[in-house]
Automatic annotation (TrEMBL):
It comes from the Bacteria. Residues 107-369 form the NodB homology domain. This is Polysaccharide deacetylase family protein. It holds the Pfam family Polysacc_deac_1. GO terms for molecular function: hydrolase activity, acting on carbon-nitrogen (but not peptide) bonds. The keyword RNA-binding does not apply. Keywords: Signal. It comes from Ktedonosporobacter rubrisoli. GO terms for biological process: carbohydrate metabolic process. SUPFAM superfamilies: Glycoside hydrolase/deacetylase (SSF88713). PANTHER family: POLY-BETA-1,6-N-ACETYL-D-GLUCOSAMINE N-DEACETYLASE, PTHR34216. InterPro entries: Glyco_hydro/deAcase_b/a-brl, NODB_dom, Polysacch_Deacetylase.
Length: 369
């Protein structure tokens, strides 16, 4: 009876985890990844990946305070050659003969963190030092300078912390004691910020919303990890040798939405200039803000080339070979709170290997990844 009681309590506790399709899909993904890992399929996929020639997997993290980051790093250290991004890219594009003579032919991995959240300092830095693993962080100098919250989290944060019960924004009134209204207001703010055609317009709108919502100025413990790191923290990390930096534009606009080409060039080139001054070393790579295909047109890529960068990373999903376009490098989105087995499955490329089989079983039009 005792053990029945215990398992019943465990099941009850597990129930909320199983609620909702998203949670179930997540659980299923972990189970599948565990099955692949413990049957040796992930090891086999990694072996095939290694035999296919030089390859670079660039992982794309944001926050570092998720509970599974240590396991991610331990796994990657064991099965890949983890390098700073610039080193890894230099090696990827080196003449083929050099790779042929390499003894260690494990695929290359670069760990990248976008935006420069404060928990990169409090969590990723200590892990990188302890495990002796290099990481690369893409910085936004305008935010480091101001210490402001990043714009993409402001819709949710401002509405959550509003000091008023009713607000009228752009002719529409929202009652903030109703959850649906709150969500709608948050979405409206996000959409305006996302589609801003200049930094001036975006910041003016943000100032207006902050005032309307009367948000208190104090910072909660929960909010602390969402703030940017300071220059002092950035320099301390750099001195350790385990952290390198890339550019993520001056203020993180979606570059394709900027209406003035001068703004596009400023965001990209000024970022490199400021970072090189602050860090006293060359800055050769850039991560496009919200780097999806629809946000990276020809003018954007040209601006990055004109500013003197050697490489640029997107959020297009996949890994890179010497044939990859150096200004449209692919990354794999990762998350420090995601189970390490799922990350292991994704980096091994097993989904790509199984895709034809999967399609044959469940029919066309379905995508496993
Ligand atoms: Zn970003």
């Amino acid at each position: 009876m005792g053990s029945f009681g215990l398992s019943w309590r465990c099941a009850m506790r597990a129930l909320p985890m199983l609620r909702g399709r998203k949670a179930m899909r997540k659980q299923f993904g972990v189970l599948l990844a565990a099955l692949f890992y413990y049957t040796g399929l992930i090891g086999l996929a990694r072996w095939l990946q290694q035999r296919s020639g030089p390859r670079l997997i660039i992982l794309n993290y944001h926050h570092a305070s998720g509970e599974d980051l240590r396991r991610h790093l331990l796994y990657l250290r064991r099965h890949y050659r983890v390098l700073h991004l610039d080193e890894a890219l230099t090696e990827l594009y080196a003449p083929a003969e050099r790779w042929a003579t390499k003894r260690d032919k494990r695929a290359l991995v670069a760990l990248t963190f976008d935006d420069g959240y404060h928990d990169n300092y409090t969590h990723a830095f200590s892990l990188a030092r302890e495990l002796r693993m290099p990481i690369t962080i893409f910085l936004i100098p305008g935010y480091v300078e101001s210490g402001d919250y990043f714009w993409w989290g402001e819709g949710r944060r401002l509405v959550q912390r509003a000091g008023v019960a009713v607000v009228t924004l752009e002719g529409r009134t929202y009652r903030l004691d109703a959850l649906e209204e709150k969500a709608r207001l948050s979405q409206t703010i996000d959409a305006r910020l996302r589609h801003a055609s200049s930094i001036v317009e975006r910041e003016a709108f943000l100032a207006q919303v902050r005032e309307l919502l009367a948000v208190p100025g104090n910072v909660t413990v929960e909010e602390e990890k969402d703030r940017p790191m300071s220059w002092a923290e950035i320099q301390k990390m750099q001195e350790s040798g385990w952290v390198s930096y890339g550019a993520h534009t001056m203020h993180h606009p979606i570059l394709a939405y900027l209406s003035d080409p001068a703004d596009l060039h400023y965001e990209v080139s000024e970022c490199r200039k400021v970072l090189e001054q602050r860090l006293a070393c060359p800055v050769r790579s850039l991560a496009y803000p919200v780097g999806r295909a629809e946000h990276i047109g020809e003018e954007v890529v040209q601006a990055v080339k004109d500013a003197g960068y050697a490489w640029a990373v997107t959020t297009y999903k996949g890994s890179n070979t010497p044939a990859s376009d150096p200004y449209l490098l692919k990354r794999m989105l990762s998350d420090s709170s995601r189970n390490w087995l799922v990350m292991a499955a994704e980096t091994s490329g097993i989904w790509d290997l199984l895709a034809p089989l999967w399609k044959a079983v469940i029919g066309k039009g379905e995508d496993v990844a």
